[in-house]
Amino acid sequence: MNFTRWSARLPGTQRRTAAAQAAIKARAQSTETSGEGKDDGGKSSGTGRTGDDGTEREGADGTEGNGPDPGGEPTAGPAAAPTAAATTADATVPEQAVPGRPADPYEDSSDAPTVPAARLSPHAEADSALPAEPGAAADPGPPAEPERAARQRRRAIDALPVRALLGEVPALAAVVHGPEHRIAFVNDAYVRVFGPRPTGAAAREALPELVELGLLPLMDQVRRSGRPRTVKSRRVPPRRQAPGPRRRAGYYTFTCTPITTSGDSGVLIFAADVTDQVEAVERLRASERRQREAAVTLQRSLLPQELEQPDDLRVAATYQPGGTDAAVGGDWYDVITLGAGRTALVIGDVMGRGVRAAAVMGQLRTAVRAYARLDLPPHEVLQLLDGLAAEIDASQIATCVYAVHDPNEGRLSYASAGHVPILVRDPDGTVHRADEHTGPPLGTGGWLHTSGSLALPEGATAVLYTDGLIERRDADIDEGIAALEGAFAGATGSPDIICDRLLRALGISEDHDDDVALLVFQHPVRSGPDAELFHNAALDLLGGTEAAPRARAFASGVLASWRFPTELRDLGVLAASELVANSLQHGTPPMRLLLRRTDRRLIIEVTDGDEHLPRRCRAEPADEAGRGISIVATIASAWGSRRTQGGGKSVWCEFALPGR
What we know:
Blueprint: H1 3-8, H2 13-33, E1 49-50, E2 56-57, H3 80-89, H4 122-129, H5 145-159, H6 162-168, E3 172-177, E4 182-186, H7 188-194, H8 203-206, H9 208-212, H10 216-225, E5 229-236, E6 250-260, E7 265-273, H11 275-302, E8 314-320, E9 331-339, E10 342-350, H12 355-372, H13 378-392, E11 398-406, E12 411-417, E13 422-425, E14 431-434, E15 438-439, E16 452-455, E17 461-465, H14 477-490, H15 495-505, E18 516-522, E19 535-541, H16 547-561, H17 566-586, E20 591-597, E21 601-608, H18 628-635, E22 638-643, E23 649-656
Parallel strand pairs: 12-15
Antiparallel strand pairs: 1-2, 3-4, 3-7, 5-6, 6-7, 8-18, 9-10, 10-11, 11-12, 12-16, 13-14, 13-17, 17-18, 19-20, 20-21, 21-23, 22-23
Helix pairs in contact: 2-3, 2-4, 3-5, 12-13, 16-17, 17-18
């Protein structure tokens, strides 16, 4: 394939050639008017063009031009455009051979075309060549130097042949033709990257780099379809023999453009170096990954580092950050042991993402732990959180569920502030939804929260979760809750296993677009030797002077039957005596003594009908009372008091079992 001859037949070349010939004719006529004829090579310069078949054709003005002079330069055909451009610019830019490139058997140097570019219009050039009309204004003189330089540069670029122009561009360029994609041209940039390539050789043998990049099938497709195709960011392995930066790998975007001539077809391969862009993208992605890891680390640092494991519950939780961006979320959970075997379980969600949501979440979680130490009912805890959330940031919406499990009663007390409902599965597999006693989200103010309760017997399992687990953009949230109920009904095993099964059943993956917090807890069924480690014993006290001796005798007998060491039994009897004496003196009936043991601790609890909570205080030497709570606080591992539902109070203390 003759690459230069194909280039000369680009659309518009003949039109520009005709216009240039018209300008030449105008100059010739002007010269003849002054009495001076012009002869070029023994022939007058006409405006006609000689066709490929050697016949003369009409010029641009409709007159017949003269035929070509055998001894002169041709004025028609593919070389006409550069000749006209050179005449107009009064200078020509010859095509320069690329050093080190083998001779092209398909190249005809006498037929070198030019690349049309931005230039003065042919009419403007013709007008500039005509003499001034009589009486016209004087010529203001030659154009300014910058304008003249710009015009000369444009004309110089116009005069460049296609081969020379492709040889000067920094991008990789190669031209192949025929079904075997034989090499017709490669520029210097291509040679610097891949090395010299023999002209006329088939691409499969002479262009192994294109074979490795998988471009040959694409070139076949481009040649057959006549439509250009592009492949982006292909990695080019380094060349050890190459100097400088080519010793490292690079990335190139390859564009294959079809070339069609009357006798053959080929493909122009153009490759742009995008190594810097690819490396910049990789650095950006690495930076985003580091930012996301830092964000997730921040989020997890605000969550419990290790869940407290109550004596009577098995607990597991998981947190799944949403999306791939670096923004942190506001989902959180917590497990708080309240004493006397009771456990608080909390889950919440601060709407939105970012540092502000995480900051509000961290403050609310800290506040919940502080309020939980007061051992308040669930609705009172949410009431305090409601006021605090409005003070922290009134623009942030937060939801929360606060629940308390009491093993003595086998029930779960709870209160909800705009959160999704708790789900409880009975031992027989029936799932209950706790829809009642739900108030508005935290921070709204003016709402009196209330507490509800549901049974949590041995063998039951409950789940607390955030809306990211069930909410989907294309479905109602009730459908998500129903799907979770179905998955929860069939999810058996330990809490850890249930967490994993629920996440899989709801389709939660790393690409999920919302944060998910999940808290699962079980009240296990104990049997055999494990059941011997959990016992309860209670005594109703009717009051009077005989109540204290009866309490001491009851405690001594029960603790002896549980085979506690003598030292622990004596301490337990002393603590029970002091708590009963305090209740007899400051409380009101009904009174009750409760002894409870677990696998890790001994719990002694006394309840009465008075709501006044005792405080530890310093007794003066002359005081006859006020030392009971101080004695209990000194000998016990922990102690506390709380108001009971329906009125009254409970005062308790704990002793850690030996070896626990």
